[in-house]
């Protein structure tokens, strides 16, 4: 009933009556069905799934983050490098700006920056995937043969029965691997051995063990226990489930998009999925469907028993370490043999509403791919935008040795396009004497809650200091990314926030005070670095060389294009010095779908 009405209204201007009308009409006529436990908690807006935007809004589109021309996107799938080409597949609705009609869209690149869109690679067509082609991963088999494992849906809602399938390139000589074949001996893995077939998805990249078996994981749950089942195979076709899951954890709910990979204890190279042994730790990352956040642990892969044991320095559960404390989900990494690095991709969803998304004609971006390494302390990961991003750097400004004495002091960073920028800055201070006490009650709180109590407008001791991104002239709108140091019992705690509270004058947006703690020895260092990638509606930040990362989606109305400003600021009583700051205008890639 409603799709006919909503077809007519797509004009999009914040504050205009026509926009409000659209929102109102969509609000009234949209039946939002929340089907518990079925698929990745995407809200189901059945009547909007095939509503194509007439005019795609350019406002708030990113310029150097990956986005198709229009429509809904979610999980990155099967990222891989093959014969000189990077491939990115992703969950895509070809017909609308909300989740639905999902296919595997496919883009290729030689540099992870410029992208060429190809035809979708995998679409529902066979009994083993006719109700959906959900997420999966790529493995390069010996002889340089790529193969994709993905989840097919064999029975529609509400059960959405899930099986694991494979697909192979139709023509290995085609440099872009445009066409993928789904052989008839699919599915490879079905839930017939005690697994829950309505919660059984997202196969990982497989690794080759010393015993000659291929192994891979499938995410699942048993009641409230999150599970990563382990499957093994000699020939990649006949898979058997290992006696025990590689890991599971009570009270974490469904594990989506598990990622399991080795990291090197020394050195700066990433490792192929099959590397084990001396000098190697493993990382298990899962996406928690219940909270829509991810967490990871660093631990040991006990290969003889095919078990993963998190180190006692990693919290295994809700409060675990996150790759990113913001809009970041369904991440997936791959080993890039061309540059000997592990690179991770992630989807960042919108923080506006489905009605906004239908009106603007698009939803979802992929964050900038990041190289991923183990912190020399062995306890956490460090992430950094791939070096190729730097080729987009244009006009540059530099600030050095600038003191911010007075509370409320801010310095504008002039001379770059502040709505589309890359900023690297190091702050220092003389003493931690003035650090505010850390309220013992907060031990019960997560970082986000503390940031919502102690935002940038709450003046402090050592901090808040940092960047004001996407700021309007009179500061009606801004998204601060900042640090704040607290004195706890025997130590200092460093909080990093990316706070959307004042990011936009538009009503009805999701404006979280995203935050995480930064694990550094701040008393010894007396300085801390921050890098932010600012791109119209996303601020992607890396604290302390990527030890704590936070991505926020924001939609300023005034701080857009050339009306956006960038500042450094201090709102604490301790003097903060901008040791050095370099900021660049970012160019648009030449090709982006
Ligand atoms: C879309 O854009 C065209 C050309 O600018 C315009 O004529 C049309 O009215 C627009 N449609 C909507 C729904 O705003
Ligand atoms: C495979 O791809 C190569 C390179 O694009 C092309 O020359 C060849 O015709 C293709 N083969 C088939 C069977 O399509
Ligand atoms: C199986 O998964 C479905 C979907 O997540 C859920 O509704 C159901 O409770 C699960 N059953 C068990 C025993 O975990
Ligand atoms: C499922 O988990 C809930 C909450 O932990 C618990 O109350 C319930 O007894 C569990 N059910 C089964 C069948 O284990
Ligand atoms: C599949 O593999 C299992 C375990 O490796 C083996 O027992 C079984 O015979 C194999 N089945 C086929 C059809 O090859
Ligand atoms: C953590 O594990 C290490 C060995 O990996 C051990 O030396 C240490 O005592 C453990 N710490 C705790 C608190 O259990
Ligand atoms: C600093 O604190 C003052 C007082 O609360 C506030 O008016 C100002 O907006 C704050 N600055 C920033 C950047 O939040
Ligand atoms: C992204 O959108 C916000 C606002 O709607 C939700 O609160 C998040 O749960 C959602 N995140 C994911 C991963 O879907």
UniProtKB/TrEMBL annotation:
Family affiliation: Belongs to the glycosyl hydrolase 32 family.
Protein name: Beta-fructofuranosidase
Annotated InterPro entries: ConA-like_dom_sf (IPR013320), Fructan_Metab_Enzymes (IPR050551), Glyco_hydro_32 (IPR001362), Glyco_hydro_32_AS (IPR018053), Glyco_hydro_32_C (IPR013189), Glyco_hydro_32_N (IPR013148), Glyco_hydro_beta-prop_sf (IPR023296)
Residue ranges annotated for the Glycosyl hydrolase family 32 N-terminal domain, each copy included: 65-385
Superkingdom: Eukaryota
Claim: Ubl conjugation is one of the keywords in the record: no
GO molecular function: hydrolase activity, hydrolyzing O-glycosyl compounds
Keyword Transmembrane helix: yes
All copies of domain Glycosyl hydrolase family 32 C-terminal, residue ranges: 388-585
Transmembrane segments annotated in the record for this chain: 12-35
GO biological process, one term: carbohydrate metabolic process
Alphabetical UniProt keywords: Glycosidase, Hydrolase, Membrane, Transmembrane, Transmembrane helix, Zymogen
Gene3D superfamilies assigned: Exo-inulinase, domain 1, Glycosyl hydrolase domain, family 43
């Amino acid at each position: 009933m409603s799709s006919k009405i909503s077809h007519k209204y797509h004009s999009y201007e914040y504050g205009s009556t026509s926009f409000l009308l659209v929102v109102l009409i969509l609000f009234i006529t949209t039946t939002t069905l929340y089907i518990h436990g079925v698929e990745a908690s995407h809200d189901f807006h059945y009547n909007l799934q095939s509503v194509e935007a007439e005019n795609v809004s350019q406002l708030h589109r990113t310029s150097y983050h990956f986005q198709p021309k229009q429509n809904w996107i979610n999980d990155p799938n099967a990222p891989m490098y093959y014969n000189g080409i990077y491939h990115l597949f992703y969950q895509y609705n070809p017909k609308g700006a909300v989740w639905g009609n999902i296919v595997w869209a496919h883009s290729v690149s030689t540099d992870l920056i410029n992208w060429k869109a190809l035809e979708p690679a995998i679409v529902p067509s066979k009994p083993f995937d006719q109700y959906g082609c959900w997420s999966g991963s790529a493995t390069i088999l010996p002889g340089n043969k790529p193969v994709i494992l993905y989840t097919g849906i064999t029975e529609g809602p509400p059960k959405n029965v899930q099986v694991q399938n494979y697909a192979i390139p139709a023509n290995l000589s085609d440099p872009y691997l445009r066409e993928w074949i789904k052989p008839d001996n699919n599915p490879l893995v079905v839930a017939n051995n005690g697994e829950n077939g309505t919660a059984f998805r997202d196969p990982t990249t497989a690794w080759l063990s010393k015993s000659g078996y291929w192994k891979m994981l499938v995410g699942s749950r048993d009641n409230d226990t999150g599970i990563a089942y382990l499957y093994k195979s000699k020939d990649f076709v006949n898979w058997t489930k290992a006696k025990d899951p590689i890991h599971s954890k009570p009270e974490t709910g469904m594990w989506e998009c598990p990622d399991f990979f080795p990291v090197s204890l020394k050195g700066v190279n990433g490792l192929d999925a099959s590397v084990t042994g001396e000098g190697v730790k493993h990382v298990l990352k899962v996406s928690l469907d219940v909270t829509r956040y991810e967490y990871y642990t660093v631990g040991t892969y006990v290969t003889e028993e095919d078990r993963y044991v998190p180190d006692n320095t990693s919290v295994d559960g809700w409060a675990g370490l996150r790759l990113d404390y913001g809009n970041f989900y369904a991440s997936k990494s791959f080993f890039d043999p061309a540059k000997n690095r592990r690179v991770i991709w992630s989807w960042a969803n919108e923080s506006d509403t489905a009605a906004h998304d239908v009106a603007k004609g698009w939803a979802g971006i992929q964050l900038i791919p990041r190289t991923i390494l183990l912190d020399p302390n062995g306890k956490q990961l460090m992430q950094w935008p791939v070096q190729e991003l730097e080729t987009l750097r244009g006009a540059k400004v530099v600030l050095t040795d600038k003191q911010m004495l007075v509370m409320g002091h801010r310095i504008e960073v002039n001379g770059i396009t502040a709505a589309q920028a890359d900023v690297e800055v190091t702050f220092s201070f003389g003493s931690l004497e003035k650090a505010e006490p850390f309220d013992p009650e907060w031990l019960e709180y997560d970082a986000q809650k503390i940031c919502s109590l102690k935002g940038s407008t709450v003046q402090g001791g050592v901090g808040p200091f940092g960047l004001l991104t996407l700021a309007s002239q009179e500061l009606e709108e801004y998204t601060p990314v900042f640090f704040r140091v607290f004195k706890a019992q025997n130590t200092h705690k460093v909080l990093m926030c990316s706070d959307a509270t004042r990011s936009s004058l538009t009503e009805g947006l999701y404006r979280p005070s995203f935050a995480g703690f930064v694990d550094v020895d701040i008393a010894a260092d007396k300085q801390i670095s921050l890098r932010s990638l600012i791109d119209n509606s996303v601020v992607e930040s890396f604290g302390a060389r990527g030890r704590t990362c936070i991505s926020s989606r924001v939609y300023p109305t005034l701080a857009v294009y050339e009306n956006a400003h960038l500042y450094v600021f201090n709102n604490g009583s301790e003097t903060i010095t901008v040791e050095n700051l370099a900021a660049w205008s970012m160019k648009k890639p030449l090709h982006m779908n």
